[in-house]
Amino acid sequence: SITGACRAIQKLTRVRVVDNSALGNTPYHRPPKCIHVYNKTGVGKVGDRILLAIKGEKKKALIVGHKMPGPTMTPRFDSNNVVLIEDNGNPIGTRIKTPIPYILRQKGEFSKVLAIARNFV
Amino acid sequence: MWRAVLVGCRLLRPVSAAAAGPLRPQRLPPVAGAPRRGCAAARGAGGGGAGALGAVAERRQAADTVLPKFNIDFVVALLRQENAKDICVIQLPPEIKYCDYFIIVSGSSTRHLHAMAHYMLKMYKHHKEESDPHTQIEGKETDDWLCIDFGSIVIHFMLLETREAYELEKLWTLGSYDDQLAQMTPQSLPEDFIFGLTPNSSDHLETRTECNC
């Protein structure tokens, strides 16, 4: 059962991997789920790092969009989008098709993710 | 829409350090008339050895980037001074509101990349005034990809293998016609997806996640 989007991304949320990494795109019988949010509060917004459980492995990821409405004049997405990342911050995939918000530029060190993105919002 | 990108986007041919002459003057004399456009040569795999260029593309009078002094010419001159390999400068059209210039640089080793990045940061700090935002080096923990974002210029320092893997030049010059993008399997909406449906019905979300898996 599914509730509406009340908190953006927290533990056990199902997320959608939007880059073209092999790990994110190969089908598996369970959707990738967040198991930890690297944040003081357990809620992840755009630009936060989380730990995902994908295909039985743990991988870090970066949140690039969530269903919950954020601050005004920021985009709201229809799915909780996430980009897989290594521990050192390098993105695992090489291209991102979905739009990426511009806020990521001011948020932190995410220029690499922006560099492989295709369109911005 | 993206045709305009192709037309407006100027790719300056990758310049190898060997072909670097003396440091260019900081300010090019203003050119009357339209500047010559550099031919778009998308960098093929391993084709970094562009070698000596015959006709060097004359860039537009370096517009105000971050600072009056710290502009693109200065940056490229510094990179050449640092023996950076395969400097690739891409001028992005203003529709992409990301930055004006996108620079990709290769280095010979991790230490070289770190040295270049720190040197660029040092020169930026030296030239900037108080009101300009601070910049940080991203990717200090990595050993193959560093990045500096100066507002209107973004510089990526990568090793050669990383560069080949990501092919950022192709992405930013070809736009939608990039081959890696085309190879990504397009995700289609499930048959029963209804726009605007509140996620209270379990069928809707379950089928969506199944489709994305």
TrEMBL record, chain A:
GO terms for cellular component: mitochondrial inner membrane; ribonucleoprotein complex; ribosome. GO terms for biological process: translation. Keywords: Mitochondrion, Ribonucleoprotein, Ribosomal protein, Transit peptide. InterPro entries: Ribosomal_uL14, Ribosomal_uL14_sf. The keyword Mitochondrion applies. GO terms for molecular function: structural constituent of ribosome. Belongs to the universal ribosomal protein uL14 family. This is Large ribosomal subunit protein uL14m. It comes from Pelecanus crispus.
